Amino acid sequence: MKVLKFGGTSVGSPQRMNEVSNLICNDGEQKLVVLSAMAGTTNTLVEIAKYYSKGENGNAVAVIDRLHDAYSQHVANLYGTVTYRQNAQDFIDRKFEHLRSFGNIRFTEKEEKEILAQGELLSTFMMTSLLCEKGVNAALIPALEFMRTDINGEPDMSYIQKNIAKHIDTDSDIQIYITQGFICRNINGDIDNLQRGGSDYSASIIGAVLHAEEIQIWTDIDGMHNNDPRIVNNTQPVRHLLFDEAAELAYFGAKILHPTCVLPAKNAGIPVRLLNTMQPDAPGTLIDNETDHGKIKAVAAKDNITVINIKSSRMLLAYGFLRKVFEIFEAHKTPIDMICTSEVGVSMSIDNPQNLDAILNELKELGTVSVETNMCIICVVGDMKWNNVGFESRVMDALSDIPIHMISYGGSSYNISFLIKEDDKKRALQRLSDTIFRK
User: Fold this and answer.
1) Rounded to two decimals, what is the model's pTM?
2) The pairing of beta strand 368-382 with beta strand 296-311
3) Sign of the Cα pseudo-torsion (280, 284, 288, 290, in order)
4) Is residue 213 within 8 Å of residue 265, measured between CB atoms?
């Protein structure tokens, strides 16, 4: 069995839903399909939840009514028979009446999570109904009956495996199983969501527990590109990536994939393929555990980086200094992206400045602190083991006239990273493409 995930853009209109329904049935193979909410729905549900949280029930209902009208129009255009059209409309009417009911109760984070879950419940019902109308033997599996997180908020893999097995029969005549991405229940049984990676994460988890043949992530771009196509000319899809390479690219800015979502697939040894719903015949990108020796694969960039520099004579020949620094960041739940040290100084970069003021106040007790903002991390990814001679010089040649604040290499065998000003980002990315990937 293969697990296929389709994002919001892929099911964002009746036309797109029809295209996806045809795509998943074109070979007659049994599949499990994970769907996101229709494009724009989750953002609208967030808006509704915010209004309810502020007690602005009238505004919430106005937004609900507009979204209800949009879905009613989708239903009118999606189904060709009166029976399926009416059944879908009845389901949608019930869901939107449920959304209106939140104005009558005390609104908490629990209710917010339940509101955010409605988008996936709507899209999966609509798709399952469409498949059945077309004569496909399809079954809807509620994610809320098997997807659960543990006490630490992480996927409870044994629970998921045990409970999804109750719904899946690989020997049955059901051709397509449909389920929701993103949503789950927490350890208390309340509706929650997976947050990091959303529906991609759901697909990876499900593929892992089912020991799937392959996990396919369908988006609106032909795989992961070797540079940012929004900024750089003549980028090309990368046809093969190691799991670790894909995770590095995702973490450092490649938007097509969330860095954590491939971990369950990696641990289970299940290949992940990134494909394009607009070009279903394109080969996309295959991600697995096979290394392409000596190849530089891609470049990514991460914006909005803040650099914190600490200088202190107490570092000289001392131990325990860095531990104190790291404990401050840990206390404020702020991860560090890059770090460089010298005898009397340490520089670190972060991408979340939410607790920056509190962090700086505590760091000032350790030494002299300075901050630089509007920085960018450029990450070059590939097989970069230290004994692969020459890749560093190719990268450095490309950046020869661009000021570099920090360089990080050695923590991973799959990337070398550079910290530069955001103003130099476009030039750096284009130079790297021209130097590394030119034929």
Assistant:
1) 0.87
2) antiparallel
3) positive
4) no
